[in-house]
Write a structure and sequence with these properties.
With 457 residues, the chain is α/β, with parallel strands linked by helices. It is 32% helix and 15% strand. The chain contains 12 helices and 12 strands. Helix 5 crosses helix 12 and helix 9 packs antiparallel against helix 12. It is globular and about 65 Å long. The termini are far apart.
């Protein structure tokens, strides 16, 4: 019994006691700009803030996690602007503890080797699961090593395919590139399960492996994911050490006294956001992505990180084995907000494939909604959320020529809607994975006529 509850998440450890998440709603473009400036300067003060969402447009709320010693000063600043706000999470540590307790109680009634999709799993458990899949379904599932992280962990995709006499088109899925988005890896693992299960279907419309091969990367950021379990539940980036970088002076000097208080913060000393590290508008990125204290720090140079290099390697391998124009889709799965997004993220304006993207996304989100009624917003990244440079989706589309490159943000809609954001209740893992698969399945069939000769539908 004791063995079955080992590996409980340690991340948290009381470090988020008293942290509150505020939902702040700007009504004007000036207020959006004020919030953006506040965010850009947040790493230069002693006030520990974590922006769960980006300031984007009037009427769209942002969620900000704020340390208890800074709550009063930040609330006063927000009040002075006339913006509405409310406290959506009263104590972040309570939710982290609740997450641990739920997992403990589920594991209490399981044998150590049992797999259950009903809880979040640490990296060791996920690796044990993928080992089992490879050994049990060796005729369908194999491993593809893509690289090694800074801390020496393997970055491995699972290749799911049926033998065929012809070279099939291929679809890429990756999950967990941002460490704290714990509901993302279950979506990739569920996709593998469904591909295996449906390979036995007598209905050819259910067996995607008859049409496509799949490369699926369940945890694209292993070091960050482990750190989010063992040390800091809210960690986002990878774990590469950063040195020699300096932050700028704050224009909000009233936050907690002297400037530069974050210099001892590990967010300034470690970590690059792998999903800002791709070579699309890298050196012209908006905001403060050059600041190592930022959650979205883009690194020293494009593709400097083992995680982004691994994804690049995965695409190279697919091109070598399947052909330059035979990658049917590239999908990167995140959480949260319930979005299905297409290029571009780094600039405004529509891509040349905008109409096809919108058609496929509409089909995908409709099928997704048919499972549990969950509504997704869809459209270009820059319109649905915000302008962001260096993303894998833009890179796959613009640099690698993969027409159907999408980014998903799974459940839920976040604190601005009274929900939990990154701390999605584990009771929602299975329905989240189920509906995500329905959307991905619909996407794959919707694009099939462009990649499969004599496709009949």
């Amino acid at each position: 019994m004791l063995a079955s509850v080992q590996g409980l998440p340690a991340g948290g450890g009381g470090q988020y006691r008293g942290y509150q998440v505020l939902s702040i709603t700007p009504d004007t473009a000036d207020q959006v700009s004020w919030l953006a400036m506040m965010k850009d300067n947040s790493s230069d003060t002693e006030c520990n803030t974590d922006w769960w969402s980006e300031p984007s447009k009037p009427g769209v709320s942002v969620a900000v996690s704020i340390a208890p010693e800074c709550l009063d000063s930040i609330e006063d600043l927000v009040k002075e602007t006339g913006m509405d706000y409310n406290v959506t999470i009263v104590d972040l540590e309570n939710l982290i503890e609740e997450e641990k307790s739920y997992r403990f109680l589920v594991l209490l009634h399981k044998a150590a080797e049992d797999w259950t999709p009903e809880i979040y799993h640490n990296l060791r458990e996920i690796e044990r699961r993928t080992d089992w899949l490879v050994s049990t379904y060796s005729h369908l599932v194999s491993r593809q090593n893509l690289g090694t992280t800074h801390e020496g962990r393997k970055i491995e995709a699972l290749v799911v395919r049926e033998e065929a006499s012809v070279t099939k088109p291929v679809i890429w899925l990756d999950c967990g590139i941002h460490a704290r988005e714990w509901v993302s890896p279950p979506a990739c693992l569920h996709a593998i399960d469904k591909l295996i299960e449906n390979s036995n279907s007598v209905d050819p419309r259910e067996n995607l492996l008859a049409v496509y091969d799949f490369y699926i990367l369940p945890v694209a950021n292993p070091d960050g994911y482990v750190y989010s379990w063992e040390s800091d539940r809210m960690w986002r980036k990878n774990r590469r050490p950063i040195s020699g970088e300096q932050t700028q002076a704050s224009v909000f000097p009233g936050w907690g006294g002297s400037l530069g208080g974050q210099q001892a913060n590990s967010k300034c000393d470690y970590g690059v956001d792998p999903n800002r590290n791709f070579p699309t508008n890298f050196y012209q990125s908006a905001g403060r992505d050059f600041d190592p204290c930022r959650e979205s720090y883009h690194g020293d140079s494009p593709l400097s990180e083992p995680e982004s290099q691994a994804i690049q390697r995965g695409v190279q391998i697919m091109k070598e084995k399947h052909g330059e124009g035979n990658i049917a889709a590239f999908v990167s799965i995140h959480a949260y907000s319930q979005f299905w997004m297409s290029p571009y993220g780094y600039k405004e304006g529509h891509s040349k494939d905008y109409d096809d993207h919108m058609r496929v996304m509409k089909t995908s989100v409709e099928d997704l909604a048919s499972v549990h009624g969950t509504q997704f917003t869809y459209g270009p990244i820059s319109e649905v959320i915000y302008i962001a440079s260096g993303s894998s989706v833009d890179w796959a589309y613009q640099n690698e020529g993969i027409k159907y490159s999408f980014g998903l943000e799974l459940r839920d809609r976040g604190p601005r809607h009274g929900q939990r954001g990154f701390l999605l209740p584990q009771s929602q893992i299975v329905p989240t994975a189920e509906e995500a698969w329905a959307g991905l399945n619909a996407m794959a069939w919707a694009i099939a006529p462009e990649f499969v000769t004599n496709f009949s539908g």
